[in-house]
Design goal:
Helices cover about 25% and strands about 30% of the residues. By secondary structure, the protein is of the alpha/beta class. It has 3 domains: about 220 residues, FAD/NAD(P)-binding domain (3-Layer(bba) Sandwich), CATH 3.50.50.60; about 130 residues, FAD/NAD(P)-binding domain (3-Layer(bba) Sandwich), CATH 3.50.50.60; about 70 residues, FAD/NAD-linked reductase, C-terminal dimerisation domain (Enolase-like, domain 1, 2-Layer Sandwich), CATH 3.30.390.30. The strands form 6 sheets. Strands 1, 2, 3, 4, 5, 6 and 18 form a 7-stranded mixed beta sheet that branches. Strands 8-15-9-10-11 form a 5-stranded parallel beta sheet, with helices on one face. A 5-stranded antiparallel beta sheet has the order 21-22-25-24-23. The chain is globular and about 55 Å long. Bound molecules: flavin-adenine dinucleotide (FAD). The site of flavin-adenine dinucleotide has 34 residues, from helix 1, helix 2, helix 6 and strand 21.
């Protein structure tokens, strides 16, 4: 029987940040981090910029100067030999270093930096909340005092014919990203016919990068009438669609996926309208399903996520949740929310880790902010986009590629889309949203 003070389930960015938070407050307690991937703690948002960026025609390597990925905080060392690194090297060996910009944490790094026991490529298969016991995929049983769930999500897989064919990909893990790059690289000078399915952040970003590959022919199939409908008003969404079309992405909006055709490998993508689009590869980006299997049938397995209080503790004392699965009360914008953006994941993980030790009791507060780059347009999506705006106001103009669209409810700013804006402008919008809430609280107190 393995015994630990703190069990952290899931070694994504949130899980690793939880371990950091624990160590800041408790230097001695035994921490066990379990994750089922071969490496830990990388930012999935960096997968597309690192792996899907077209090779530089002069050198054959990824053109790092154009990359929209955040600066590398910890380059991976090729030469080391632990399990995690082997996996990374294996995926990197086919291309020219696409993974180098990915801040991957290896088991050895984490053990040395944080003094935690790390089990990668290992799954927690059973989790007993009441007894504080769990079972690993290796068959070992373990007992923990406290736990934090950070199991994140997996790519949603539409239940359509042919979904298991070769070259039908989802983009969630390092392995997925490496496989997509491999197929693109095999396309050769003739290029690859790619169908991207979806209209959200990931689908749009993937299409915008893949269309830059030599000779690539990219079709984007989306059942909605516009891209990014969750964030953009109709006019801005139409403008973005025109940008995509002008850059060579064939837009098939209002088309619903019906299935994939081929014998063993994909040949066509079918839509419900009867269209058959020839494709050598499909990239399906239709959202995420949360990994809540361990807590299914418990009050922690709520479909929107695991409910936590502002301290990130679930209703089960001593059991916390962080990252994509945690549904926390957002006191700034209201309602229940799940974090978006790497910065928020890190901060939330650290708060959860610190609180888990019992040596701090810190609230998690965050104003929702997501950053995405498409064709050189840098978008900041700030605030609450859960309800369609009653009114929008445009500052600047879309054609110049520099604008802000303010989303208003009852005359109050609830969300904003900034395109190619300075940091100061984005911070100003956040201040305005926070001030509205502070004003509301003052009014209630009076
Ligand atoms: C390509 C891509 C681009 C993205 N871009 C953005 C973006 O620009 N902005 C943004 O806000 N978000 C983006 N996201 C979403 C973002 O990556 C997620 O919100 C984030 O990864 C969540 O982190 P997490 O640590 O909570 O979960 P995850 O990163 O999903 O990590 C959880 C880990 O736990 C493992 N696990 C699950 N169950 C078990 C178990 N029983 N035992 C052991 N391990 C388990 C999972 O396999 C996984 O490795 C993007 C996602 C993808 C895939």
């Amino acid at each position: 029987m393995i015994r630990c003070d703190y069990l952290v389930v899931g070694a994504g960015l949130a899980g690793v940040s939880v371990c950091e938070g624990i160590r800041e407050k408790d230097r001695k307690g035994g921490v066990l981090l379990v994750g089922n991937e071969a490496v830990a703690g990388y930012r999935r948002a960096d997968l597309a910029p690192c792996f899907l960026w077209p090779p530089d025609p002069r050198t054959g390597s990824k053109n790092a100067s154009k990359s929209s990925s955040k600066p590398v905080d910890k380059p991976v060392d090729n030469g080391a030999s632990d399990e995690g690194t082997e996996a990374v090297s294996a995926v990197g060996s086919g291309g020219q270093d696409p993974w180098r910009g990915l801040a991957v944490r290896r088991a050895a790094d984490l053990e040395a930096d944080l003094r935690v026991d790390v089990r990668l490529e290992t799954t927690i298969t059973q989790f007993n909340l009441e007894r504080r016991q769990a079972v690993l995929s290796t068959g070992q049983a373990l007992e923990f005092r406290k736990a934090c769930l950070a199991t994140g999500g997996r790519a949603a897989r539409p239940a359509v014919a042919g979904a298991g064919l070769g070259n039908v990909f989802h983009l969630r893990t390092l392995r997925d990203a490496a496989a997509v790059r491999e197929v693109m690289s095999l396309g050769g000078a003739g290029g690859t016919r790619v169908v991207v399915v979806g209209g959200g952040c990931l689908a749009a970003q993937a299409a915008s990068l893949l269309v830059g590959w030599p000779g690539a022919n990219v079709v984007l199939v989306h059942r909605g009438r516009a891209l990014w409908q969750r964030w953009l008003d109709g006019l801005t969404a139409a403008w973005l669609g025109e940008v995509f079309a002008a850059r060579g992405v064939q837009m098939r909006l209002g088309e619903t996926l019906n299935g994939f055709e081929g014998r063993t490998v994909l040949r066509n993508v079918q839509t419900k309208s009867g269209a058959r689009i020839p494709a050598a590869m499909a990239l399906v980006a239709c959202g995420v399903e949360l990994n809540l299997g361990l807590v299914a049938q418990t009050p922690l397995g709520y479909p929107y996520g695991t409910p936590v209080n502002e301290f990130l503790e679930t209703e089960e004392k001593g059991v916390f949740a962080a990252g994509e699965i945690a549904a926390y009360p957002d006191h700034t914008m209201g309602g229940l929310r799940r974090v978006e953006g790497a910065e928020a994941l890190v901060q939330q993980g650290r708060v959860a880790g610190g609180n888990l030790t019992g040596k701090q009791r810190q609230r998690f507060e965050w104003l929702p902010h997501r950053h995405a780059e498409l064709f050189g347009y840098a978008f900041d999506l700030v605030g609450d986009f859960s309800r369609p705006p009653v009114q929008t106001e445009l500052e600047g103009d879309r054609e110049s590629g520099r604008f802000v669209v303010r989303h208003l409810h009852g005359g109050q700013l609830v969300a904003a889309v900034g395109c190619n804006q300075e940091e100061g402008v984005i911070e100003g919008l956040k201040r305005e949203m926070r001030a509205r809430v502070t004003g509301r609280k003052r009014a209630v107190l009076r």
